[in-house]
Design goal:
Blueprint: H1 2-19, E1 46-54, E2 57-65, E3 75-81, H2 91-100, E4 105-109, H3 127-141, E5 147-157, H4 159-170, E6 174-180, H5 185-191, H6 201-216, E7 223-224, H7 231-236, H8 240-252, E8 262-263, H9 267-270, E9 285-291, H10 297-306, E10 311-318, H11 325-328, H12 330-347
Parallel strand pairs: 3-4, 3-5, 5-6, 6-9, 9-10
Antiparallel strand pairs: 1-2, 2-4, 7-8
Helix pairs in contact: 1-8, 3-4
């Protein structure tokens, strides 16, 4: 155990150096990723904080415009959907910024009930709502000055990838669909990560039902998930996804709007939902990206196999990468962005 702690301290120090300049205090936009925009400069990618209404809820988003942006011209556009527990200032913003550097107008919104967006109760994680978030982002960005609505694509990351698959099954405004480190929230909340909780499905559904009843009676909202973690908890975590995720979200790329909490009653919807149901409805070009060493890769494999009608579908593996490393590690991020740009250039 002592040896493990020493190794983790080294991980924290290395990653802290990578993102130390991107703290909320040092970046006026609150961005926490390496080389994030710190000011808008003519001739470079710029960031624009926007808000819009979606079903009566205020949605907060960041729009990234390419260098030399001219609203009288027409640009392809991309929606970037953030991970579960994530927000627009983290990995979603990183990819939105890098893709804008390649000439795309991109939008990274916070999901309703999460981040800087409105909605009560806080941290509600409803699949239908997350899917509607993606459609709402399309509504907004296709009306943005300079956007060519006929060239709209999407990138869904982690949980946002699962919701992206669901949204694009029906919404054909999205002409090209890509996922990165896709996470099927329904499957994992139902069966547990790597199918580790199948034996307790009914017990957890009962807990969700009780939580819903308590909310309906005006009682306290019950939350599931992890509010904070200690170094000891991180050291004892055996799966790469959660151990590295704790480091990313609670140490190196922490942001006050980001949390692993979600309402217990959300499980009523999550556990009866699956991102891969009706995958045959996706007929757009499909690119699914995962790290070759990711312990979540099985979810990408399952979804990819079911996308029987997708046009020119491709599974791209990032050699040596784990799930969380695709969020920040420069050598992996560069590979992924190059692949995404090639895909969108060919498909849009």
């Amino acid at each position: 155990m002592k040896r493990i702690k020493i190794i983790l301290i080294g991980i924290f120090m290395t990653a802290s150096i990578i993102s130390s300049a991107q703290s909320k205090e040092k970046n006026p936009f609150g961005l926490v990723y390496e080389n994030a925009i710190s000011e808008n400069i003519d001739g470079k990618v710029n960031i624009h904080s926007v808000t819009y209404k979606l079903n009566g809820i205020d949605i907060a988003a960041n729009v990234y415009t390419p260098a030399g942006y001219d609203s009288s011209k027409k640009y392809p556009a991309l929606v970037v959907a953030h991970p579960n527990g994530g927000i627009k200032e983290q990995v979603a913003g990183l990819y939105a910024q890098l893709l804008a550097e390649s000439g795309y107008i991109t939008i990274a919104p916070d999901a309703a009930y999460q981040g800087a967006s409105g909605g009560e109760p806080r941290h509600k994680d409803n699949p239908a709502s997350r899917t509607e978030d993606i459609r709402g982002a399309a509504d907004f960005i296709t009306q943005y000055p300079g956007v060519d609505a006929t060239r709209l694509g999407i990138l869904g990351i982690c949980g946002g990838g699962g919701y992206t698959l669901k949204a694009t099954q029906g919404d054909k405004r999205f002409r090209a669909v890509a996922t990165l480190s896709m996470f099927n929230s329904g499957e994992v909340r139902r069966n547990g990560f790597q199918n580790s909780q199948i034996a307790t499905i009914q017990e957890r559904l009962q807990q969700a039902s009780d939580a819903r009843a308590q909310e309906a009676a005006g009682g306290k909202i019950v939350y599931a998930g992890v509010p904070n973690v200690t170094d000891e908890i991180i050291a004892k975590t055996t799966t790469d996804l959660y151990r590295e995720g704790y480091v990313y979200y609670y140490r190196t790329h922490a942001h006050p709007n980001s949390t692993f909490l979600y309402t217990m009653s959300s499980l009523l919807d999550l556990m009866t939902w699956d991102a891969t149901a009706n995958m045959d409805l996706i007929n757009q070009p499909l690119l699914m990206i995962a790290g070759s060493k990711a312990d979540t890769k099985y979810m990408t494999d399952e979804a990819f196999a079911k996308a029987t009608n997708a046009k020119n579908k491709e599974l791209f593996l990032v050699d040596g990468a784990t799930h969380i490393q695709t969020y920040w590690k420069p050598e992996y991020v560069n590979q992924i962005v190059n692949k995404l740009v090639q895909f969108y250039n060919e498909s849009l």
